Amino acid sequence: MTQTFSPDDPTHQILLSLLRGFYWFDEGLLNFLKSKGWPTITRPQSMVMANIAMGVKHPSDIARKLGISRQAIHATLKSMIAMDMVQLVSDPTNKRVKIVDLTPTGERMREDAQHAMTVMVEELTNRIGKSNLQKAAVALDLDWGTPMSFPMDKR
């Protein structure tokens, strides 16, 4: 039986809350990098960097995770290569395939981004409390399993 949610139940808005939190961190990160003298980074570029940090390095895999076309990811990568953030190198396991790797400049930017995350987590701890932040972090880190699939609705 499907449970219905009351509009004032916070779980009813969890996706929007997650998205708002994501925007809070991403905008803070971009502002921090700008304050350190880095060039302006777009959200797609930021998302490519996040995927690289998570170990996703094949352009086609990054495009799939971001829900964009291969042409769009290549345009984003081209702009990042021009900014000396990333480079395309041969995949050590398959020389016919290219992977995205950070340049030394990109690595320094990643280090600044890590510092930004530390600063933002400290501020978020001050704003919402250590206990609330720890509970959220533990819950979000749980294995949620594979994404749900649903049968086609034949209307």
TrEMBL record:
**Residue span(s) of domain HTH marR-type:** 31-133
> Pfam families of this UniProt entry?
MarR_2 (PF12802)
Q: What is this protein called?
A: MarR family winged helix-turn-helix transcriptional regulator
